[in-house]
Design goal:
With about 375 residues, this protein is mainly alpha-helical. It contains 21 helices and no strands. One of its GO terms (molecular function) is DNA binding.
Length: about 375
């Protein structure tokens, strides 16, 4: 057993003992600290390292002073680069901005495993703390993007636009390209005008060295516009991005790249390749990231329908919506489900049921209206 595994086990053991001492179940503690209960279970068993944020919140809820925080801070850091000393109190989102791809699975747990409504206040607090300390501008941009995307998922589009504006206002160079790309992808779920989104995507890839997320944003928008020749070229560029490239510029994760490739394939009518790519994306996406996995499953359902397996695609989409906890149901999920309806005949029984489930959120779905 490595020293890192031993330290994770020590933190997990203390967390379990402290929780049991006050008579709380895993689900009860998870609800109080805003984390998924399955993730907490893995932390207690030493299968996940936890985070400084989790330790701090559990200290508060369990009345353990700073025992959990101190125990967590004693563990060796995965995110320290050669020649660097890791700061154990560094926020998870900040580690995301500086860590390599292999480290992101740890850093991202802090928000990918947290429902958006619970997550939002913490993101805003992190930004305020960063600004008070005079922190790095690129980190503030990344946090503004996360807030904008979270607000978009919650349906608060006007507030999200203000955060996009704030991200643009403080970004330069590669940071501005990142904002443009992520806003273009977000705009697809919001059903914003496609030509406006294409301008954002074009601006993102115009950077001296376009990143994976920039190329993905442009390919996704071109696919929605139906510009077949251009989107084929864009898809080839996406598929040509290797793991080494992602590791060198960790602004996106491998599962997100395969998600984009699968989505583009589905829009081009390549259902089977889309299914293969999305299955690979699902393999790379951690189990505790409930919202992300729901979107991947719904994209898989769309690809199944495109491949001619309409009943199977509709059945998968229905299962996702029925089983998904209410706190994870957001605009991103509804948009992914609506895309299944766009390729399924309206007369299909599953389509009728899926439309009914989506209507419970008060959205107009399956209209097939143009975005141009």
């Amino acid at each position: 057993m490595t020293s890192t595994t031993e330290a994770s086990s020590a933190f997990g053991t203390l967390l379990r003992q402290s929780r049991q001492a006050v008579g709380l179940s895993l689900r009860q503690l998870a609800a109080r600290v805003g984390y998924d209960h399955s993730y907490l279970s893995q932390v207690e068993r030493g299968q996940r390292p936890g985070s400084a944020d989790l330790a701090r919140l559990c200290d508060r809820e369990l009345g353990t002073g700073d025992q959990l925080t101190v125990t967590f801070e004693r563990r060796p850091s995965h995110t320290a680069r050669p020649g660097q000393t890791a700061d154990p109190s560094e926020p998870a989102w900040q580690r995301l901005a500086t860590a390599g791809v292999a480290d992101q699975a740890i850093a991202l747990d802090d928000f990918r495993s947290t429902p958006p409504l619970v997550l939002l206040p913490d993101l805003v607090s992190e930004l305020q703390l960063l600004q008070a300390r005079g922190g790095d501008a690129l980190q503030a941009v990344e946090l503004s993007i996360l807030i904008a995307e979270t607000l978009t998922g919650l349906g608060q589009r006007r507030s999200a636009r203000r955060w996009w504006w704030a991200a643009h206002a403080s970004a330069v160079g590669a940071g501005e390209a990142l904002v443009c790309a992520r806003e273009a992808i977000s705009g697809l779920a919001e059903r914003r005008p496609l030509l406006t989104l294409l301008e954002l995507a074009d601006k993102a890839v115009a950077h001296q060295s376009p990143s994976a997320v920039s190329r993905a944003a442009r390919a996704l928008v071109l696919a929605e516009l139906g510009q077949s020749e251009e989107v084929h070229r864009a898809l080839q560029e996406l598929v040509g991005i290797g793991d080494d490239t992602l590791a060198a510029r960790p602004d996106w994760m491998p599962y997100q790249l395969h998600w984009a490739e699968g989505r583009v394939c589905a829009r081009l009518g390549y259902g089977v390749p889309g299914c293969i790519l999305l299955e690979r994306a699902r393999e790379l996406c951690p189990e505790g990231w409930i919202g992300e996995r729901a979107k991947l499953d719904l994209a898989q359902a769309e690809s199944l329908a495109v491949a001619g397996e309409v009943p199977a695609g509709l059945a998968m989409a229905l299962r996702v919506l029925v089983e998904l906890p209410h706190e994870w149901r957001d605009l991103w999920v509804d948009d992914a489900a609506d895309r299944v309806l766009r390729v399924a005949p309206e007369s299909e029984r599953g389509a009728v049921e899926l439309r009914r489930l989506l209507a419970t959120k008060g959205r107009s779905v399956g209209s097939g209206s143009s975005w141009r």
